[in-house]
């Protein structure tokens, strides 16, 4: 009787109602990218994550890693490097920052690691205005331009499916440090809370449009661009 009842229920309720994909991103950005690959069966792509933060928490790449993808994780905080090496063994995990030239920069560390970054102005403002968050310390971190990191670590001939950037005030600098003639990810996710009705006020939006990309989606904190040359 129970077996018969179960078969009846499954007959009239779509089986996909019982399953869902877990998002690891802060605002569901990974599910936006996932939707672009829904019709590509067993596809294993490649990502580059600048400001990767954590192998799971607020991660735009964890879902794809669990689906067999791999890529490069770039995170300046030395505390989480061991976690990336353990939980992301297929990935290339780098404990460096991204800037416009090879140098060492001051990295501001907060009691909420998601706020860590290289921007002195933004970090000091957060330290003075947020009751819950405060600056713990500063450390010196080696940085390289994104183009140099890709020159060294991107496998030869490997195309980048998506680049995700969360650099806490350094996002435009990260974009400017790439060589867009040689390295053109199909999709680019970059943090910018600009209003959709005021896109021209965003330096990041204007830069990406000039680089040949078009805005195709947006969350509260993130803009998603697609390479107009690969459409």
Automatic annotation (TrEMBL):
Gene3D superfamilies: Vaccinia Virus protein VP39 (3.40.50.150)
Signal peptide (UniProt feature, chain positions): none
Residue intervals of the Methyltransferase FkbM domain: 49-215
InterPro entries: EGF_Rcpt_Signaling_Reg, FkbM_mtfrase, SAM-dependent_MTases_sf
Record-given protein name: Methyltransferase FkbM domain-containing protein
Organism of provenance: Sphingobacterium griseoflavum
Top-level taxonomy: Bacteria, Pseudomonadati, Bacteroidota, Sphingobacteriia, Sphingobacteriales
């Amino acid at each position: 009787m129970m077996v018969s009842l179960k078969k009846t229920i499954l007959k009239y309720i779509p089986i996909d109602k019982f399953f869902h994909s877990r998002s690891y991103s802060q605002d569901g950005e990974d599910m936006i990218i996932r939707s672009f690959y829904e019709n590509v069966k067993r596809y294993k792509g490649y990502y580059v994550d600048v400001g990767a933060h954590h192998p799971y928490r607020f991660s735009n790449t964890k879902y794809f890693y669990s689906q067999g993808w791999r890529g490069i994780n770039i995170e300046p905080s030395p505390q989480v490097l061991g976690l990336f090496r353990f939980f992301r063994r297929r990935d290339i995990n780098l404990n460096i920052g991204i800037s416009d030239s090879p140098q060492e920069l001051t990295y501001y560390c907060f009691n909420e690691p998601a706020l860590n970054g290289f921007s002195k102005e933004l970090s000091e403002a957060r330290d003075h205005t947020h009751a819950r968050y405060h600056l713990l310390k500063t450390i010196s971190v080696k940085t390289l331009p994104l183009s140099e990191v890709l020159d060294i670590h991107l496998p030869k001939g490997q195309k980048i499916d998506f680049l995700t950037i969360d650099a806490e005030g350094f996002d435009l600098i990260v974009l400017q440090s790439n060589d867009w003639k040689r390295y053109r990810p199909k999709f680019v996710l970059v943090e910018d809370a600009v209003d959709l009705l005021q896109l021209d006020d965003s330096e990041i939006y204007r830069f990406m449009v000039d680089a040949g990309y078009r805005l195709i989606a947006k969350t509260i904190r993130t803009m998603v661009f697609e390479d107009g040359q690969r459409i």
